[in-house]
Amino acid sequence: MKTYALVFQGTAYTSKSPKEVEVLENYLFCVNDDGMIEMVIAPGDPAYRATQNTHEVRRLAEGQYLLPGFIDLHVHAPQWAQAGLALDVPLYEWLHTHTFPLESKFSDLEFAADVYDDLVGTLLANGTTTALYFATVHKEASLLLAEICANKGQRGLVGKVVMDDPEQNPEYYRDADTKTALAETEQFIREVKQLAESVKQGVYPVVTPRFIPSCTDEALQGLGELAARYDVHIQSHCSESDWAHEYVQKRFGKHDAAALHDFGLLGQKSVMAHCNFLDDEDADLFARTGTAIGHCPLSNAYFANGVLPLARWMDKGVEIGLGTDISAGYTPSLFDNARQAVISSRMLEDGVDTALPADRRGVPESRITIDEAFYLATAGGGESLSLPIGRLAEGYAWDVQIIDLTAGGMKLPVFGGGDSKRELFQRIMYLCRPEHIREVWVQGEMVHSRSR
Ligand SMILES: Nc1nc2[nH]cnc2c(=O)[nH]1
């Protein structure tokens, strides 16, 4: 009889497909020493009783449910220091008058430690077990963020940001020159890979050209080559707003997707944030290369000048996950972003200009369900990163949030005969707050717990 490091008994929700959530009612989840789910056992299975008899089983209490940990595909870690501020100006102005001045302060490692420590703890408390981070141009502070993720038990994918074009970036905040930007990125990749050797849940270096407007051709080319040489993840912003999209069109005579592809920046391990202005050809290119979209619905409401046709690209088979895009999105919660993904998709389908007749107001077949939004926050994020995370299934990491519907004095409005398990899922997705997240586990280790 096999022995497991951990055995949990409880009811879990996990995505079976992009459209379907499966309820695993009162299952056993057996986790090995590496923090991977080795067996998932249904109540009727003969192994169920045998495993119960031979292990100390952690039984979830009444009102507690398991969800996979959330995967945030787009977080600007330094911008946590301005979360909730400056959301009333366009992207270009926001970058130059608020964001670059703030990010330039991360040359100060003490300030960086304060912000990063608080952010990683906050994300874990919000159920985010994996995050794909932009840090800043500063190599040392970027490494510090990776170390903080490592120490707090979060699976962090971290990029030292490259912005080397002196024409486009202010003197006080940019890489010294292209050669330095590439040399520091390479050094950063090596240092994070070395750190990763002793980190159970993994930390990963990410090649991170901020976006095409901030980088020279030489930097974009060099970063594509580095990513290929070290086989690491790549992230950037792609066709986010009218301004950013038009800038690339003018510079290269093509869309961001094609230009990024020319520089070797699309592939299985690439995640491109936003992508609001992709056309069919761009989306086909994403699907063909395995490039993922990091969809940031709240941020898009402020900065994108439009709504991502999410359902359309999901149907095409493009990999998509969710991002908070702190601080262009103000909340650290992927619950909030899952809700907004549904809301934005409904507004795209119905349209918003009531001066137009209903049949010309929106884009048909754009809506997504809350089940699909859950998929984006979990399994879709895992697929986007090509990591075995985001599902409660054999061969996946034990990255979970234990939701406690009775916690925090915030009882959900369930009356009469109570909810079915399907209804409870919807309540959790729409009404759950950080107070309801009782415990968070990453790779078989508890990394956050909240008493009543
Ligand atoms: N939302 C967002 N878009 C960007 N484009 C370039 N930099 C940024 C950033 O920090 N946030």
From TrEMBL:
<dbReference type="GO" id="GO:0008270">
    <property type="term" value="F:zinc ion binding"/>
</dbReference>
<dbReference type="InterPro" id="IPR014311">
    <property type="entry name" value="Guanine_deaminase"/>
</dbReference>
<keyword id="KW-0378">Hydrolase</keyword>
<keyword id="KW-0862">Zinc</keyword>
<keyword id="KW-0479">Metal-binding</keyword>
<comment type="pathway">
    <text>Purine metabolism; guanine degradation; xanthine from guanine: step 1/1.</text>
</comment>
<protein>
    <recommendedName>
        <fullName>Guanine deaminase</fullName>
        <ecNumber>3.5.4.3</ecNumber>
    </recommendedName>
</protein>
<comment type="function">
    <text>Catalyzes the hydrolytic deamination of guanine, producing xanthine and ammonia.</text>
</comment>
<dbReference type="InterPro" id="IPR051607">
    <property type="entry name" value="Metallo-dep_hydrolases"/>
</dbReference>
<dbReference type="Pfam" id="PF01979">
    <property type="entry name" value="Amidohydro_1"/>
</dbReference>
<dbReference type="GO" id="GO:0006147">
    <property type="term" value="P:guanine catabolic process"/>
</dbReference>
<dbReference type="InterPro" id="IPR006680">
    <property type="entry name" value="Amidohydro-rel"/>
</dbReference>
<dbReference type="InterPro" id="IPR011059">
    <property type="entry name" value="Metal-dep_hydrolase_composite"/>
</dbReference>
<comment type="similarity">
    <text>Belongs to the metallo-dependent hydrolases superfamily. ATZ/TRZ family.</text>
</comment>
<feature type="domain" description="Amidohydrolase-related">
    <location>
        <begin position="65"/>
        <end position="447"/>
    </location>
</feature>
<dbReference type="GO" id="GO:0008892">
    <property type="term" value="F:guanine deaminase activity"/>
</dbReference>
<dbReference type="GO" id="GO:0005829">
    <property type="term" value="C:cytosol"/>
</dbReference>
<dbReference type="InterPro" id="IPR032466">
    <property type="entry name" value="Metal_Hydrolase"/>
</dbReference>
